[in-house]
Specification:
This protein has 249 residues and is mostly helical. It contains nine helices and two strands. The chain has one domain.
Length: 249
């Protein structure tokens, strides 16, 4: 089953090559959209089976983390291409992928214990080394800030049409279910943000991101720079929305 993964990574590598070659923004955006489609489909195939979930758990988490990294690359490329709808689609996909890869599922209280957890294989066309829990947690925080910014700049940024999908580990089985799952990723919402208006969702995402970075900084003193960056981004987000910056405890 790793064949589709290798295809996805090759498509990702081609997207990076296209971007670095100085290609027109639209061509670069299309290249990244293809890469996201390939890697997202692989993640959804793992979720839908037929292999037992316990057998693929680590591979699925590693794939979801890789998908979140790819989407963080793709969002600015797609934005530069002028495809505003797909900016939200990629940002929502990143949210679902990062949340499913996050060992603490967004809970700052679990960060300390999770830092000593096992590393995962890194799925990246140019990457090296394993993915530690701290990187996955930080990635989930950074995706929250990215989506919050997309919502503030392009409200409501709901992603794909349809009812917002509350992110869950549960998934139906079967090949057709994988296609349905892929569409759900594109309109994903965190359970705690379900039903919120765009401004409230953006502020909630920003606050959660800062709390996760604060928990990481508490266990990893070298992470304080990242915490300060997240705090600045939350303040910038509040200014963009025209509200006071929320107090994050």
């Amino acid at each position: 089953m790793r064949g589709p993964l290798q295809t996805a990574l090759a498509t990702w590598r081609q997207a990076r090559t296209t971007a670095s070659s100085g290609a027109p923004p639209r061509r670069t955006g299309v290249a990244y959209h293809r890469a996201v489609n390939h890697l997202q489909m692989y993640a959804c195939m793992l979720r839908a089976g037929p292999r037992p979930r316990e057998e693929v758990r680590d591979e699925l988490s590693a794939t979801c983390h890789a998908l979140s990294v790819l989407c963080r690359e793709s969002v600015p490329k797609v934005a530069a291409s002028g495809a505003a709808h797909y900016v939200a689609v990629h940002a929502r996909t990143a949210l679902a992928a990062a949340h499913l890869a996050d060992p603490v599922r967004g809970d700052p209280g679990r960060v300390g214990a999770a830092l000593d957890g096992p590393a995962l294989e890194r799925f990246d066309p140019d990457g090296a080394g394993d993915v530690l829990p701290a990187e996955r947690i930080a990635g989930a925080a950074d995706v929250r800030l990215m989506l919050a910014s997309v919502i503030a700049e392009r409200p409501p940024a709901r992603g794909a049409t349809g009812t917002p999908w509350r992110i869950t580990e549960d998934a139906d089985g079967g090949f057709r279910a994988a296609y349905r799952d892929r569409r759900r990723f594109r309109r994903a919402v965190l359970p705690g943000c379900a039903g919120l208006d765009p401004q409230a969702e953006a502020l909630s995402l920003g606050g959660e991101a800062v709390r996760l970075h604060a928990a990481l900084a508490s266990g990893l003193p070298g992470h304080r720079t990242e915490l300060a960056r997240a705090q600045r981004q939350l303040a910038d987000l509040a200014r963009l929305l025209g509200v006071a910056a929320p107090t994050v405890g």
